[in-house]
Amino acid sequence: MRVVLVNPPGPAGRGYIREGRCEQRLSSFAYRMMPISLASAAALVRAHGHDVRIVDAVVESLDAERLCRRLRGLDPGLVVFAVSTPTYDSDRRVVELVAAATTAHRTAIGLHVTARAADSLRESRLDSVVRGEPERTVAELADALAANADLATVAGLSFRRGTAIVHNADRPWVDDLDALPVPARELLPERRYTLPLPNRPYAMVIASRGCFHHCAFCAAHLYYGRRLRLRQPARLVDEIEEILGRGMIRDVVLWSDCFTLDRSFVLDLCQEIQQRRLPLRWMCNSRVDTFDEELAWPMRRSGCVGISFGIESGDQGMLDRMGKGTTVEQAHRAVRAARQAGMAVLTQFVLGFPGETPETIRRTVDHACELDADYCQFYCATPLPGTVLWHESIRRGYLSTLDWSRFEPNRAVLSTDTLGAAELERARRRAYLQFYLRPAALRRLASRVDHRTFAATAVQALAFAREWIFDG
Hints:
Blueprint: E1 2-7, E2 16-19, E3 22-25, H1 36-47, E4 51-56, H2 64-74, E5 78-82, H3 88-101, E6 105-109, H4 111-115, H5 117-123, E7 128-130, H6 135-146, E8 157-161, E9 164-167, E10 202-206, E11 208-209, H7 220-224, E12 229-230, H8 233-245, E13 251-255, H9 263-276, E14 281-286, H10 293-301, E15 304-312, H11 316-322, H12 328-340, E16 344-351, H13 358-371, E17 375-380, H14 388-396, H15 421-436, H16 439-447, H17 454-469
Helix pairs in contact: 1-6, 2-3, 8-9, 9-10, 13-15
């Protein structure tokens, strides 16, 4: 059977990222993220003997009509859509157009359909939805459809049977991530997935899944669970070496819910990379309480050029409310260690969580400026379905809208007892201006631009300002 996995076009012609807990516009630093979930699922479906294609309508700039024409020509038996919360209404319209254009079974993966499986089926022309980790459920769904078998045998699937909605048993997480085949990146236009500012193509490589922390705003546990599952360092580096061997890519993003949760894993991986003398530049994410000088230098020597820290707040009371489990001082130590080792640093902050006030926001922005990272993101607290924040917001009446298109981190949908949505959006804009208009920040950004990159950087900066800062 032919299976087509689709990253749908974004609403209003905008590009969107739909990858696990990462759901936002491409204009966030112009980061074109590879839909690694689609590539990973495609590889396993192909290993089950099916004919597989991937259509990334975002990176190929396909609108819904052109996507439907492409699918009509491919004549699939199964179409798998990546769906996110901020694009949910747009994604439903795409599904409806595809339903009119093909006879394929239509399913979806992603956090939104995982958290709202029954609602997603009632509100759309999806035939089923995949809950949680997608690879094995998608592959078994393809097998069942090809054999005309009962879909009730497919764990992790919710589906429509007549007027009833059936929820099959949850699927256990994949214990051995190395048992999954290498993602089918060759089915994607790999050169079009680029990092911001250097504008170089890169590969996304899965390093681990799962996070045992309980941040109240985070939905990652819905997709990959709370139990940490690690790749074998040698197998992980085998995959990286194969990518580098094709001669097209030297930059790799190691994709994890949190890369540095297991110190031994990180050190073993760095040693493996160094032993093979790979010409590699790589990046990762981290918590500030799981990173220090003892990790920073081995990481840098093995080719780590950048790290992202989810710091979230500069106010200890807000960190405690969020369930972050970190301290303000740990953020200073982690950023200092990364900078001293020569890594570029991105810091990320969440504004507007219940209990936030103008004063706590001021402390957070001052904290961001003191840390003086290379880049900084300020998000609005977004109550994604299934999170602790979602349930608290429903219970306490904090939601200012149920328009899913506004559930993205550059827009405010919470009006709490201490901060209104409009006030939060204004504070977020001021935070960006305060951080990036500092002389130190301007000098640093200017040092990264030369005559060859000026035009592309200017276009990216304008797009970032227009859609990420000022389009609230």
